[in-house]
Specification:
By secondary structure, the chain is mainly alpha-helical. It has one domain. The chain is 69% helix and 3% strand. It contains 11 helices and 2 strands. β1 and β2 form a beta hairpin. α2 runs parallel beside α6. It starts with 21 loop residues before the first helix and ends in a 7-residue tail after the last helix.
Length: 297
């Protein structure tokens, strides 16, 4: 009887050791992380942040109902009329794009991997047949979904509370709402990618992110020169005027808050935001793939 040769012995195929495809792996991580994010302590903070504009909208609604606010005034000796759509546009720009979106980005983006390290669960994720980059990307998608699920109801409530005020019409302003929601989505995506990179790069990512949004961006955006191009808010401001009314009080406020700076065109803003998104998320993925995570005892 002949002895079986090495080639005739069944062997495990190499396919069994190959990790699943990147997108399918990211989807598994997304499905696992979405529920965790929605039921985390950060969701309470997120609800508090986006609840502020709703409270302001309710107060404005009460003031107008009690005829304590007329919506008429004078700017530079000219009579102006402020209606609901103008107020809504200013709230989108001031409360959401300038405050809520950066805050949500920094608190969630920097924690995409840091939370797993802090909870000492990152080893369980990395021992699965899933690439590290897919883990980060899946958690990034969960961040977009969870923040969107909380921000969207807030924006809709503010829209229906504020837009009808002082003669505003909901139907004719609905396209503006769609534009504003798109801007908020872009802001969340870009800030999330940037802070995902900071979370993968720096040892204290949350502190670094807070310094960026409350220190670097507010200062650099109003300082003449080219440094403002290294901020997200500069490109977002280039898109906001294209979605907001440009008459009367709005143009006056924008000229004051933007320090009379020439803002980038819509095309330049889209390109700039796209580069920050792609480069930030790409570098974050690259760093996570190569970083050695040491859990503290």
């Amino acid at each position: 009887m002949s002895t079986p040769t090495r080639s005739s012995v069944p062997a495990a195929t190499s396919e069994s050791a190959v990790a699943p495809a990147f997108l399918s792996s990211a989807w598994r991580i997304y499905d696992l992380s979405l529920g965790q994010m929605l039921w985390s302590r950060r969701t309470v903070f997120m609800a508090f942040v986006v609840g502020g504009p709703v409270v302001v909208a309710v107060i404005l609604r009460l003031l107008v109902t009690m005829d304590l606010v007329s919506g008429r005034g004078m700017v530079d000796g000219r009579p102006i009329i402020v209606d609901g759509p103008i107020i809504f546009g200013l709230m989108i720009w001031g409360f959401y794009l300038r405050l809520s979106v950066p805050l949500l980005g920094v608190f969630y983006g920097t924690a995409l991997m840091a939370d797993e390290v802090e909870d000492k669960t990152i080893t369980y994720l990395f021992t699965r047949p899933v690439s590290r980059g897919a883990v980060l990307f899946g958690k990034y998608l969960a961040y977009l979904a969870s923040t969107g699920l909380v921000v969207l109801p807030s924006v809709m409530l503010v829209f229906f509370l504020v837009v009808p005020l002082l003669g505003g019409d909901i139907g004719s302003n609905f396209p503006s709402l769609v534009t504003d929601l798109a801007l908020l989505t872009v802001g969340l995506a870009v800030y999330g990618a940037l802070f995902a990179l900071i979370g993968a790069w720096f040892k204290r990512p949350l502190l670094t992110g807070l310094v960026f949004i409350f220190g670097w961006e507010p200062i650099v955006v109003v300082v003449p020169g080219y440094m403002k191009r290294l901020t997200v808010s500069y490109y977002l401001q280039g898109l906001v005027p294209h979605a907001m009314p440009q008459e009367g009080l709005v143009s006056t406020i924008l000229s004051i808050l933007q320090a009379n700076e020439v803002l980038p065109s819509a095309a330049v803003s889209v390109i700039g935001l796209g580069l920050i998104l792609v480069v930030g998320l790409g570098l974050a993925t690259w760093l996570v793939e190569r970083r050695e995570y040491v859990l503290e005892q």
